[in-house]
């Protein structure tokens, strides 16, 4: 369930209240006249089940509430309410299958900014993966996958392609391109520095590495794994189950492949550099394609659910009369 806090100009307040009150997916409607200060207006609070939230948000935006006032959305972990249970029964479908597009767009849109933190994380992850490649240590590869923040821009790119938001497409692509280029450049420098310090050498890259050589030898399974990871990652975003995102990050080889490119370039091993670059491109393309297809299927699936199943009217609340009152009424 989601909690909505709406600030609306007083002359539109009644229309918003009527909209919310008429929708069976909405409950706990509260009106605070004149409580809004910046921007000024009435404050309307309500709870809405996830399966009905997208329609409500679209209707509020069509009324211009987001421009004249404001809409805030936050998740509700626990709700103890018979009214909330009735709202859940009245709304079609299940909350875990519903896609709240504004929520997804905002969540992924934050990951498109080329921030210092993003560059630092992807650079550190690539350096760690580069050391893991040379030492043939899968645990370091897994750690780099968890640290790497690249799935954020990839998810944002998928959402932007489905909704065709060109500015977000450009920002996401820029974050990915600049992030990987900077990370690989710094990894090349760190490889040279560690070599000069005598901690690593070119022979480590050329030696047999049975545990990590898959990183620069792409095959059909590379595409399959990347595609499946992209599906799982997008489902974790749309269903608001971020816990499964960690499992996605350790299932693909984007950051490790970029690290192998950097190390191979530092030691002038072109065949590994080319193979790792191909692995990186395969995984990036597979994840984006999987994300786009997942969103399209979800949108089609949800539109059929909402179109083919009319919301059930909420059950009337019990009167709460005592047995004595019932008996006297019968008498």
Automatic annotation (TrEMBL):
Keywords: Membrane, Transmembrane, Transmembrane helix. The lineage of its organism: Bacteria, Bacillati, Actinomycetota, Actinomycetes, Micromonosporales. This is Putative hydrophobic protein (TIGR00271 family). The chain crosses the membrane at residues 116-135, 141-162, 174-200, 220-238, 245-268, 280-302. InterPro entries: DUF389. Residues 308-331 are annotated as: Disordered.
């Amino acid at each position: 369930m989601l909690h909505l806090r709406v600030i609306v100009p007083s002359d539109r307040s009644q229309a918003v209240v009527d909209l919310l009150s008429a929708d069976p997916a909405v409950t706990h409607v509260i009106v605070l006249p004149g409580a809004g200060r910046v921007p000024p207006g009435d404050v309307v609070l309500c709870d809405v089940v996830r399966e009905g939230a997208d329609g409500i948000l679209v209707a509020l935006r069509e009324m211009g509430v987001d421009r004249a006032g404001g809409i805030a959305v936050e998740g509700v972990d626990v709700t103890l309410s018979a009214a909330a249970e009735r709202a859940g029964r009245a709304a079609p479908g299940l909350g875990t299958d519903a896609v709240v597009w504004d929520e997804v767009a905002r969540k992924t849109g934050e990951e498109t900014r080329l921030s210092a933190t993003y560059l630092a994380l992807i650079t550190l992850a690539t350096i760690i993966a580069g050391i893991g490649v040379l030492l043939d240590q899968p645990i370091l590869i897994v750690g780099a996958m968890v640290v790497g923040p690249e799935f954020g821009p990839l998810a944002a790119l998928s959402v932007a392609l489905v909704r065709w938001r060109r500015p977000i497409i450009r920002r996401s692509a820029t974050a990915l391109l600049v992030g990987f280029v900077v990370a690989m450049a710094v990894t090349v420098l760190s490889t040279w520095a560690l070599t000069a310090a005598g901690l690593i050498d070119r022979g480590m890259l050329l030696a047999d590495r049975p545990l990590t050589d898959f990183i620069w030898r792409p095959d059909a399974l590379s595409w399959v794994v990347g595609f499946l990871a992209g599906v799982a990652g997008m489902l974790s975003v749309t269903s608001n189950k971020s816990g499964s995102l960690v499992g996605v990050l350790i299932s693909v080889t984007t950051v490790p492949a970029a690290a192998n490119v950097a190390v191979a370039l530092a030691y002038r091993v072109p065949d590994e550099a080319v193979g790792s670059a191909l692995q990186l491109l395969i995984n990036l393309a597979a994840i984006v394609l999987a994300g786009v297809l997942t969103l399209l299927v979800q949108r089609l699936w949800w539109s059929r659910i909402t179109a083919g199943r009319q919301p059930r009217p909420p059950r009337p609340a019990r009167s709460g009369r005592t047995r004595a009152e019932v008996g006297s009424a019968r008498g």
